[in-house]
Amino acid sequence: MNQWPLAGAVLTMTIAAHAQTPPPNEGALGTVEVTGSAGIVLPKLAIVPVTGEDGETRDVLKKDLDRMGLYDVVDEAAMPAGPFAKDDPLEGKAWKGKGISFVVRARAVGSELEGQAWILGKGDDPVATVKVKGGGRSAAHELADQLLLSLTGRTGPFASRLAYAMRTPKGRQIVLTDVDGQNKVAHGSKDDTSLSPAFGPSGYLYFTVSKSFDPFRLAKGKDATEIPLKPVGSVLSVSFSPDKTKLAVAIMKDETSKIFTGKADGSDLTVLETAKQPNRPVLGPLGKIAYVASGGGTQRVYVDGQAVSPAGFHASAPTFCDSPQGLLVVFTVGVGSGADLVATDTSGGNVRRLTQGHGSNAYPACSPDGRLVAFFSTGANAKSPALYVLPLSYPTRIRKLADDHGESLAWAR
């Protein structure tokens, strides 16, 4: 029996609620606190425009620090008058007089990028000086991460990678990319159908692939090297534990799906007791596992066997966020003809809506530092489909990461 259409049906049930089910009460999701960006007062941060330095590094720093949602990153017009040489001392009084609380400077020092950070309330001396090897966008992302560590005590997420499935004329292909959409590397063939990317041991990217409408198999790497699994069936999705020592996989056989867990190499797989037709397992911190399964007449998100998504809403694509506020689960729920992102704690409490009025939003992926959520969205007014990111602290501060609009998003950790 050809199992690929069944697998595809399970994997693409991510947005619309069941037509035969009465629409649930949207009030159960709450509302996004839409005071608007103008109502969010953030401390001002300036990036010194160093004379003679490559503007690319500063541009990357500005976008990365703005995406964090922690600072109001100001333009040059809001800074003291320059010019600024790379070795000039910082006159804190002039910057504080502009209402600026934090200052960052980046400069080339030999074959390295050097970054300095000032907290002006602590004086005119930098609180940190950090260096990264090399130059270009990749080094600038790493510098942004290290500067965030100096300023917040928690490293940033921008030197990591994203992976997702993109449509091709004949199917879907996995794309590995920098967080800003640069340096794309295709995995698998554009003539196959590849889905469900996951970052596994030794930095390899794993995903499911179907060739010529055959059942899906587990594969890894750019060449889609097959990883045999027992039991045999159509592999729907895969996940690895944060330490990359364990694997969870959903497999469909005879029109029934089950979740198996075992070692990262696919050995010692044992079935997990779940509700009906489980899929999209996600292994998280503290040994927790999230997945979707049928419950109460619709598909819900479960954590360790307990339903956590609001009853009545078709839910999908869970991800764990090990955030500064605690461990959260973020997932998609069908709302009307679209979808929004919702966060809860791991027992289903403290429901918090993250998107509203920003098109149809799906496939959330949490950043390694737990402070950002990337997702695919059709955008405001459903006119600008792309890859976006929002900070959990201020979800209304949505920023575009890249123009791609795909599915099955994963963020390397």
Can you give keywords for this protein?
Rossmann fold; 29 strands; disordered N terminus; 5-stranded mixed β-sheet; 413 residues; 2 domains; single chain; 4-stranded antiparallel β-sheet; mainly beta
Q: How many runs of DSSP E, i.e. beta strands? A: 29
**Beta-strand percent range:** 35-45%
Q: How many separate domains make up the residues?
A: 2
Question: What is the share of helical residues?
Answer: 10-25%
Structural class: mainly beta
Largest sheet, strands/sense/barrel:
5 strands, mixed
Average pLDDT works out at 91
Contiguous uncertain segments of 5+ residues: 1-20
The CATH topology of the largest domain: Neuraminidase
Distance between the termini: 38 Å
CATH-derived architecture of the largest domain: 6 Propeller
Number of separate helices: 4
Q: What would you give as the CATH superfamily of the largest domain?
A: TolB, C-terminal domain
Lateral strand order in the biggest sheet:
2-1-3-4-5
Just give the CATH class of the largest domain: Mainly Beta
Topology summary:
Blueprint: H1 4-11, E1 44-47, H2 55-67, E2 72-73, H3 92-96, E3 100-109, E4 112-119, E5 128-133, H4 136-152, E6 161-167, E7 172-178, E8 185-187, E9 193-199, E10 205-210, E11 217-220, E12 225-226, E13 234-240, E14 246-253, E15 256-263, E16 270-272, E17 276-283, E18 289-295, E19 298-303, E20 306-307, E21 315-323, E22 326-335, E23 338-345, E24 352-353, E25 361-366, E26 372-377, E27 386-391, E28 399-402, E29 407-411
Parallel strand pairs: 1-2, 1-3
Antiparallel strand pairs: 3-4, 4-5, 6-7, 6-29, 7-8, 9-10, 10-11, 11-12, 13-14, 14-15, 15-16, 17-18, 18-19, 19-20, 21-22, 22-23, 23-24, 25-26, 26-27, 27-28
Helix pairs in contact: 2-4
